[in-house]
């Protein structure tokens, strides 16, 4: 069973809504620059983790993904580390950006459609970061 664990430093970023532009009679969609940059960071970290783990081929079967988002604690807050973060950004948008960023790396799995199970949480943390564990599921 193949498994991969890595940490993405910095404040977790959500996937933003796509942007649209018209070119003649065609409409083109694109990622906002902030989402594109955040996906690049995720892709780079995932690729390096796969390389360091000796993963020679992308995972081919179903995978399980566990993600922990550690959000910064505001200075005026009484929140403590590991308290649940119940403000924006939404958990589903955070997950979407991470899965898309990993898919962009092409080193971990072939496509995020292979993700068959996801567990995620959003908590306050002293060091803002995203922790990811990916496990290929035996079938």
What would you say about this model in short?
By secondary structure, the chain is of the alpha+beta class. It has two helices and six strands. It has a single domain (3-136), classed as Holliday junction resolvase RusA (60s Ribosomal Protein L30, Chain: A).
Describe, in plain words, how this protein is organized in 3D.
The protein has 139 residues and is an alpha+beta fold. Strand 4 (63-72), helix 2 (91-105) and strand 5 (115-125) form a beta-alpha-beta unit. It has a single domain (3-136), classed as Holliday junction resolvase RusA (60s Ribosomal Protein L30, Chain: A), CATH 3.30.1330. The strands form two sheets. A four-stranded mixed sheet has the order 1-6-4-5, covered by helices on one side. The termini are close together. The protein is globular and about 45 Å long. The chain has helices at residues 33-52, 91-105; strands spanning 3-9, 19-23, 26-30, 63-72, 115-125, 129-136. It has two helices and six strands. Helices cover 25% and strands 33% of the residues. The mean pLDDT is 94. The longest helix has 20 residues, at 33-52.
């Amino acid at each position: 069973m193949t498994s991969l664990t890595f940490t993405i430093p910095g404040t977790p970023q959500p996937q933003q809504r796509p942007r649209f532009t018209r070119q003649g009679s065609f409409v083109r969609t694109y990622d906002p620059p902030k989402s594109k940059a955040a996906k690049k960071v995720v892709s780079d970290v995932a690729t390096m983790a796969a390389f360091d783990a000796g993963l020679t081929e992308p995972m081919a079967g179903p995978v399980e993904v566990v993600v922990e988002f550690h959000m910064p604690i505001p200075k005026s807050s009484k929140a403590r580390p590991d308290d649940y973060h119940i403000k924006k950004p939404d958990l589903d948008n955070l997950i979407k950006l991470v899965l898309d960023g990993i898919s962009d790396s092409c080193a971990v799995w072939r496509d995020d459609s292979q993700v068959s199970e996801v567990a995620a949480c959003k908590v306050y943390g002293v060091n803002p970061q995203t922790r990811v564990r990916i496990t290929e599921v035996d079938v």
